[in-house]
Amino acid sequence: MILFFVSILLLLLGYFVYSKVVEKIWGIDPNRPTPAIKYADGVDFVKMPLWRIFLIQFLNIAGLGPVFGAILGAIYGPVALLWIVFGCIFAGGVHDYLTGMISLKYKGKSIVYITEKLFGKHFKTLFLIFYLTLLLLLGTVFAVNPAKMLADLSHSPLNFWIIAVFTYYFLTTLMPIDKIMGKIYPYFAILLLVMTISVMVMLFKSGLPFYPQMTFTNLHPEHAGIFPILFITIACGAISGFHATQSPLMARCLPNERDGRIIFYGAMVTEGIIALIWATLAIAFFHNTSNLLTEIQSSGQGGVVSLISTSLLGKIGGALTILSIVALSITSGGSAFRSIRLTVTDFLNLKNQNNFKRLLLSAIILSCGVILSRLNYTTLWQYFGWANQALSALVLWTLTYYLRKKSKFYFITLIPALFMTAVVVSYIFQDKIGFNLSPIHSNIIGVVSALILLIVFYLVKGKKKK
Questions:
Q1: pLDDT tens per residue, range 56-88
Q2: Domain 2-380 architecture
Q3: Which of 80, 446, 141 is nearest to 275 (CA)?
Q4: Which end of the chain has fewer surrounding CB within 10 Å, N or C?
Q5: Predicted TM-score (pTM) of this structure
């Protein structure tokens, strides 16, 4: 139990102390008009109250990651909490804050646009393809999974719920941001927070030991290696490349630059707390990692969530918890497809106010998602997991290059960039979806690749700020 409270305390200290360091390194100007004010269009650039922006940002970035990923990561034991805490503070929080603030600086544009300014059009095109592919994978995954949960909960056909989810996605992608996302998302976020805290309170009352096997050694029953798999498994809650795609949405609604710390870094810390809670619930409820793995293999993470929440809160409370997680997934999926529309709109220089073009573009994007939803879900999730963390590494390198170019202290992004590079390269060489090499060989390749990129980084001279 002490480990849980220490972990929460460290995350809070990360927000109140380290985020201020990051903010100071970046440098803000509270008197500079934000894109929400300079480019207000009533569709995507809409100034909103701070509390709404925070809850929308939190819901957008979270998805299923801080729940499903944390449950999978809990198979390794309490060591998963270390990654959540330190990953969130020194990698995820920095990544989210800087992607939000650099978007503010560049007219609310996405990281794709910024890569063109830094590296040229050819790199931008490659980055755009990777970026849009990731968003399509994520949006589809976050449609199929909640559809399955709703079908199980209501005992109704799966296809009905898939159609319903994609219909909602279409409206979210098309409508002005303050109509659906601005009005509904904050209340979904409140429901999620209330139900997650409720489950945790009932765990306290149950008297179950939080960490029956209190050790930071690897407790995976099948002895799967911690590196690099754990760092791919737990993304949202520690660091996730997907968050870089969401920051521009709220950067276009932010009233003032000084609000960036609470919106971008604060939402990341909140997500880290959610991940801590669900990792702890999974470890405590099943008593040991063998029981947890057996349940995951039997009923999946959705089944684990259902069993824990129903057992601790009863049928009604369990149903509300499941619905809050379904909302978490659907809202992130909807914002993923909206991010695709914004990115393509910027790329093609389209006008947001043109309703027909917005309608046509939204229809094309959602059609691609519907086609992908017919593929094998497990395969989609595996490729998304790797692509997600690969994007985080790419974004961290981009931010590092930008900070160095502006003569700012760039080690706050360089160190996590090196680590995440080693993780994603090792994983793709080790896993079956990649080259299926032995752990020792793939890990060596990962570390060497990170060192080579470090050398290249120092060989490429960036233009310094005049």
A1: 999 999 878 899 999 999 999 999 999 999 999
A2: Up-down Bundle (1.20)
A3: 80
A4: C
A5: 0.93
